[in-house]
From TrEMBL:
It comes from Corallococcus terminator. GO terms for molecular function: hydrolase activity. The keyword Chloroplast does not apply. Gene3D superfamilies: DD-peptidase/beta-lactamase superfamily. This is Class A beta-lactamase-related serine hydrolase.
Length: 343
């Protein structure tokens, strides 16, 4: 079995050399033991408790919230939107039949982005910051799908935003508070939040473009379930531990519900929020993100009792990839593959 700290350094070396100004926090949980490193090609490495924007990694937590509500018998995976969103907002009967499971597996048929995203003045550096509850409500009232769901798998940022909104209504709390009370507190995830507090702000790392230019943080006032969370490598390792069976039993049972592959998605399959790949004959569950000047990877291999977290404050581009600068998905999956080799 590879030594975790050596594995973290070896598999992230190419990324760190390609993005010399990027601050990277890399972590492994192996049989419940955590290893976290702060890495940087040029300059002082980040502290291991640095706070990063999670971007699309938020989606696995939105799906986890759905599972926690199902475990608590407050929801069903086949609960339709018509039971979660008032008729005054969701007027179309076909749209109302979209289920929680279809939203969490990206088979709802909802478009990737809101069709009315550009209906109000937009800040290119914060592309969702202007998308208000009012615009979201206008979309819901005007949404009339041509065909009923389920539809073939297609990533929908909007769909995860709709799911977060629907779950918040069922929980009777806003999205961030629902996750805090039902998931983060029970798992001891004290540094994970939808809104960075004054206490956490000094540890928050600003995002950057692929070339290292600072960019403002992205905000998601109407669609927090799609990208609003912030966290640390240590907190995400606690979350992975719960997915690997360590933690409060009802939470562990709920998270287990998110793991089963439910739909085909090209060469991979989809669980609830998770992508499920076959690596060396075993299931690996993972999610990656490139959003708002940050890149992230979160994944685990149940057979190895291991998980990997990679968080960086630099974006990524196709041009960067052509120059040999790869996003964190590749080293993340490679680490999990090596952890599956055994002793």
């Amino acid at each position: 079995m590879p030594i975790p700290s050596e594995l973290l350094q070896a598999e992230t070396r190419r990324y760190v050399r390609g993005y010399r100004s990027a601050a990277l926090c890399a972590g492994i949980t192996l049989r419940g033991e955590h290893h976290v490193l702060g890495l940087k090609g040029k300059g002082t490495p980040p502290p291991t408790d640095a706070v990063f924007s999670l971007g699309a990694l938020t989606e696995v937590f939105t799906a986890a919230l759905a599972a926690v509500l199902v475990e608590g018998q407050r929801l069903r995976l086949d609960t339709p939107l018509s039971e979660l969103i008032p008729r005054a907002l969701l007027v179309d009967d076909v749209a109302g039949r979209i289920t929680v499971e279809q939203l969490a597996t990206h088979t709802s048929g909802l478009p990737h982005l809101p069709p009315n995203l550009h209906a109000a003045p937009q800040n290119p550096e914060d592309p969702f910051g202007h998308y208000s509850a009012g615009l979201f409500g206008e979309f819901l009232r005007g949404y009339h799908p041509e065909r009923p769901s389920p539809r073939p798998h297609a990533e929908s940022f909007l769909g995860m935003g709709v799911l977060g909104h629907a779950l918040s209504r069922r929980a009777g709390l806003n999205y961030g508070h629902a996750l805090r009370d039902l998931l983060f507190k029970p798992l001891g995830m004290v540094d994970t939040t939808a809104r960075v507090s004054d206490e956490l702000l000094p540890r928050l790392l600003s995002g950057h473009t692929a070339r290292g230019k600072p960019v403002p943080p992205w905000t998601f006032p109407a669609l927090p379930g799609a990208g609003a969370l912030h966290s640390t490598a240590g907190d995400l390792l606690r979350f992975l531990d719960a997915n690997l069976g360590r933690g409060e039993p009802s939470i562990v049972r709920a998270l287990g519900m998110t793991h089963a592959p439910r739909v085909e998605a090209g060469p991979v399959r989809m669980g609830l929020g998770w992508t499920v790949s076959q690596v060396r004959g075993h299931d690996v569950l993972w999610r990656s993100s490139v959003m708002g000047g940050s890149v992230g990877f979160l994944g685990f291999a149940p057979q190895a009792d291991a998980g990997v977290v990679l968080l960086s404050n630099h974006g990524w581009s196709l041009f960067a990839a052509l120059r040999g600068r790869v996003p964190l998905e590749a080293p993340g999956l490679e680490m999990l593959a090596r952890l599956l080799t055994g002793p």
